[in-house]
Design brief:
Elements lengths: L5 H13 L2 H4 L1 H9 E10 L2 E2 L4 E9 L2 E5 L9 H14 L2 E5 L2 H4 L9 H13 L3 E5 L16 H18 L12 E6 L7 H6 L1 H10 L1 H15 L4 E6 L4 H9 L11 E7 L7 H12 L5 E7 L19 H19 L4 E6 L24 H13 L3 E5 L5 E7 L1 E8 L5 E8 L5 E5 L3
Length: about 450
């Protein structure tokens, strides 16, 4: 592991010594659930070509390795902005964009901050990064103008927002600012907490009047109207049976779930989850037979955990950073090995602007990488990758196991002439015919 401190190497290398059966079986599960049998047949003028070199390289995972991109373009200096953008694109193929209602529609009447989202989503598309809009409904803070409108008008504007946003960013033939995935409802399992009543009294009152489940159903319906093809997420920090009971309420008149994906928050400010707890959470929600997105994953690089009671933040330390790196490898490995998990999103990329001002970033505030950044980059880009060079047999065929995702295939003749192809490995049958010309 190039440029990774010895303390980090120690923590990571020690993982198997202390790991339980769940972790030790993770590699086998990854091989089973993330890779596919692939057959490539090279022909020329309809005849198989034997003895030619075929190199297969993974370009982009099907699995979504993401991060929120809340600090895009607003770091302290232009140099830090450039570093933030570069570091983001070096690891991630998914980005979560901010659509918090209180900041996104600061003036009433549908005057949304579209221009910023256009810029971020356009940059993401240039770098082949998929985008997630987050969130459309969350009673965390009221809009500045909410106090001046009655409940009926607030209700109308909320539903309009669902359709406006999903319609505005739906994929079009020439669109460069598409957003195909949305967190529609966020943290509605326990919507009447004291802080919600204090900081978002108008939205909370609306939710209480209409009913959380009824309002959520309206929001999903309106979001679906804006973009019928969108992937819609229900998201929460609750991971127990209360979330299970909530999901059971979010069904249409035929009993079909109104959401496409179950979002699971995993802010581990109080300490990393054990393998057993991770697996228990995954299994609890796997019963719904929906993709599981770990939408907000946090691991701190401080030596001490965050103190929720006093809100005390402890600084990042070398020992804490080494532990953060080792735990990131363990937790990503566990989640990647579960067949129902399809996304892991880190929260936040940098300590600059991080939630709760905690040292949650993979980067320091000056955008230099922590050991966890290097460890995850190696894991995602080097360990979990397809990079094989094979020779075709007498039938012009090569066979291999490859990760699901987009691949580049390079066929090289004995005289050094190359031909390039692309192939997307998916779950199921993966037989590709490569017709080459000279």
């Amino acid at each position: 592991m190039k440029n990774i401190p010895l303390t980090v190497l120690f923590f990571i290398s020690a993982l198997p010594l202390f790991a339980g059966e769940l972790f030790l079986e993770a590699e086998r599960r990854i091989e089973k659930h993330r890779k596919e049998d692939v057959t490539l047949t090279v022909t020329q003028n309809g005849k198989p070509l034997a003895g030619v070199s075929v190199k297969v390289e993974l370009r982009r995972h099907e699995f979504l390795f993401g991060c929120n991109i809340l600090q895009w373009g607003i770091c302290d200096t232009p140099e830090q902005n450039a570093a933030y953008h570069r570091r983001f694109a070096e690891i991630f193929n998914s980005a979560t964009l901010p659509f918090f209602w209180w900041s996104y529609e600061q003036e009433p009447g549908g005057k949304y901050l579209y221009s910023y989202s256009d810029d971020v989503s356009h940059w993401c598309r240039q770098h082949e990064i998929r985008t997630v809009g987050h969130p459309l409904l969350w009673n965390w803070i009221d809009q500045p103008w909410a106090k001046d409108v009655d409940q009926a008008e607030l209700h109308r504007r909320l539903i309009r927002r669902m359709t406006d946003c999903t319609d505005r960013f739906k994929p079009e033939a020439e669109s460069t600012n598409r957003i195909e995935t949305w967190v529609v409802c966020n943290e509605l399992v326990s919507p009447f907490r004291e802080m919600c009543r204090r900081d978002a009294p108008k939205i909370t009152e609306l939710m209480e009047k209409v009913g959380p489940a009824a309002l959520a159903k309206e929001c999903f319906s309106a979001a679906r109207k804006g973009n019928p093809e969108a992937t819609l997420i229900v998201n929460d920090y609750e991971t127990g049976m209360n979330y299970v009971e909530w999901l059971e309420k979010l069904v249409d008149e035929n009993g079909k779930p109104i959401y496409d994906v179950i979002g699971i928050q995993s802010h581990m400010h109080a300490g990393p989850w054990s393998d057993e707890h991770l697996w228990e959470v995954c299994e609890r929600f796997a019963r719904f037979d929906k993709p599981l997105y770990f939408t907000e994953l946090t691991l701190l690089s401080s030596e001490k955990p965050f103190d929720w009671e006093t809100q005390k933040v402890f600084p990042s330390t070398p020992e804490g950073e080494a532990r953060q790196a080792a735990e990131a490898v363990r937790i990503y490995t566990m989640l990647f090995s579960h067949p129902k998990v399809e996304m892991i999103t880190w929260w936040d990329l940098s300590d600059q602007g991080a939630w709760m001002d905690s040292p949650a970033g993979l980067l320091h505030a000056d955008m230099t990488p922590k050991p966890a950044y290097d460890s995850l980059r190696k894991l995602i880009r080097e360990t979990w990758t397809t990079d094989e060079t094979l020779q075709t047999d007498a039938e012009g065929t090569v066979k291999l196991r490859a990760f699901r995702g987009e691949h580049m295939i390079i066929v090289t003749f004995s005289d050094g002439v190359k031909r390039e192809f692309s192939a997307v490995v998916v779950k199921g049958d993966n037989q590709f015919q490569l017709q080459v010309g000279r």
